[in-house]
Amino acid sequence: MVVKSNLKVLAIDTSATACSAAVTDGTRIVCECLLDTDRTLSGQLLASIDRIMQDAGLTVDNLDGIGVSLGPGSFTGLRVGVATAKGLALATGKPVTGFSSLASLAFNLPWSAYPVCPMLDARKNEVYAALYSCDGLPEAIIDDCVISPADFLDHIKEPTVFVGPGAIRYREMIESRLGTIALFAPCSCNQSRASTGAVLVYQDILQGKTMPLALLNPSYIRPSEAEIKKMIRSG
Predict the structure, then answer these.
(1) Radius of gyration of the chain (CA)
(2) d(Cα 118, Cα 15) in Å, to the nearest integer?
(3) pLDDT digit string (tens) for 156-199?
(4) Of 10, 59, 65, 87, which cross-links 205 as Cys (Cβ 3.0–4.6 Å)?
(5) C-alpha span between 164 and 109 (Å, rounded)
(6) Sign of torsion, CA 202 78 191 62?
(7) What whole-number percentage of the chain has pLDDT above 90?
(8) CA distance 5 to 94
(9) Nearest Cα to Cα of residue 165 among 40, 74, 80
(10) Which residues contact 104 (CB under 8 A, 6 or more apart)?
């Protein structure tokens, strides 16, 4: 079977406060929308997808695949993003796959000479964090986790680039603990971008790595408040 290389992909990332959607044609970004949402996420996301598809001159039937950030990140945001991707896949029969929000965020800094540490604010004085080599596609050195920033920094022993909202929030601590080996991405790189996720989706679809809809679920890493309360009640 010959797989065409100019795959048209829709990618969605709702893992953080910014909602992002992008359409790519092969390795070319056709259209992207990035919103720092302050209204209902589901309405914003669907409107953004509709707008970029129209601007790209495409319909969902023209797509070769759909990808969505599975997390970690905002529980509500991830549920909305995954539900939207599932709905589109069910309606069109298009293949679907997921990607790590932290891998996508790290990929804002491709070909970095240093390891990249993406951080999202996980609240409760914790971060969602990982460590990636971005010499090409991102490869995990430390897998995605939820942890106190101080404990994560204990694992950093060499110059590292920090990126993301969590790195912004805890910058003072990072600088204090790591000194000159702590490097920080420019502000333009700190938002999650669906277009970087689209590159990961494109590679997965080229290799036939798609997911059954039943297995396309958010990766929260830690239990929700409702799950914690249920576990407490059940002893």
Answers:
(1) 18
(2) 13
(3) 999 999 999 999 999 999 999 999 999 999 999 999 999 999 99
(4) 65
(5) 11
(6) positive
(7) 81
(8) 16
(9) 74
(10) 13, 69, 138, 192, 193, 194, 196, 197, 200
Instruction: Give the integer Cα–Cα distance in Å for 176 and 96.
Output: 42
Amino acid at 161: V
Which stretches within the chain are classed as H helix?
41-56, 75-92, 101-106, 149-153, 165-169, 171-178, 194-206, 225-233
* Residue owning tokens 């890493």: 221
Selection from 6, 2, 80, 90 nearest residue 44 by Cα: 80
Query: Could you tell me the domains of the chain?
Result: 8-101+192-233 (3.30.420.40), 103-189 (3.30.420.40)
pTM, two decimal places: 0.91
CB-based contacts of 183: which residues, under 8 Å, 6+ apart? 114, 159, 160, 161, 162
Q: Indicate the helix (H) or strand (E) that contains 180.
A: none
- Separation between Cα atoms, residue 19 and residue 192, nearest integer Å: 8
How far apart (Å, rounded) are the C-alpha atoms in residues 202 and 10? 9
Distance CA 117, CA 130 (A): 6
Number of residues that make up the chain: 235
CA 211/CA 67 separation, integer angstroms: 10
121-148 burial code (b ≥16 CB/10 A, e <16): bbeeebbbbbbbebeeebeeeeebbbbb
| pLDDT confidence of residue 44 | 85
Omega of the bond prior to 218 within 30 degrees of 0, cis?
A: no
Amino acid letter, 77: G
Q: How far apart are CA 235 and CA 218, in angstroms?
A: 26
pLDDT band at 235 (very low <50, low <70, confident <90, very high): low
